[in-house]
Amino acid sequence: MSAPLTPPPAEIFKAYDIRGIVGKTLTEDGVRQIGRALGSEARERGQKSIAIGRDGRLSGPSLAAALAEGICAAGVDVVDIGMVATPMSYFAAHHLGTGSAVSVTGSHNPPEYNGLKMVLGGTTLSGEDIQRLRQRIEKGDLASGQGKLTHADVRAAYLGRILGDVKLTRPVRIAVDCGNGVAGATAAELFRRMGCEI
To answer: What confidence tens digit (pLDDT) does each residue in 118-170 have?
Structure first.
């Protein structure tokens, strides 16, 4: 029989996201537990699947995989959309019809950090909703099931939506600096297709 898991530290459950130092306050085991709590909360809210995207941090793939395992263990399906900018994760919730998404991102924080920004049923989790995830873990109030993991690419649909909504009145010459962020994978193509000179 395995030893019970230690819950993630309360300090990583912030007002608008979950955020910590990878391997110290934010571990794969901790993220797996958070995924199980998130899946449990999703089921309670009538949600059946969650899209997961991640930024370009080196810790992203392993943390996203742990998150997906936890969500699936709660009986909720996961759609992995890969390495994308945070707005693409939110777009995926609409485009794929999940209504729910998690972006595994350290945002503006130094490279040793990573975190989770979450939407369930169209509502961004913050404040008490985030604390409720922590409380679920501590009380063991976790659903069980066997969700399935699938993969999807929403990049073309995301760019198509922006290009359908935004029209330039004249050609523009711009410089693009994505600061080594994951938006660099799509920004130049988007602006070129809008008619900009990059």
So the answer is: 999 999 999 999 999 999 999 999 999 999 999 999 999 999 999 999 999 99
152/126 Cα distance (integer angstroms): 27
Q: Quick count: other Cβ atoms within 10 Å of Cβ 130? A: 19
Distance CA 53, CA 82 (A): 5
**Distance between CA atoms of residues 88 and 79, nearest Å:** 13
Active-site amino acid positions = 107
DSSP state of 186: T
Nearest to 114 by CA among 182, 40, 44, 165: 182
CB 126 within 8 A of CB 33: no
C-alpha of 125 from chain center: 12
In 3D space, the residue among 48, 34, 11 whose CA is nearest the CA of residue 147 turns out to be 48
Whether pTM exceeds 0.85: yes
Q: How far apart are CA 181 and CA 177, in angstroms?
A: 9
Locus of tokens 């935004």: 166
Paired tokens of 91: 């777009």
Distance, CA of 104 to CA of 174 (rounded, Å): 29
Taking the C-alpha atoms of residue 71 and residue 49, their distance in angstroms, rounded to an integer, is: 9
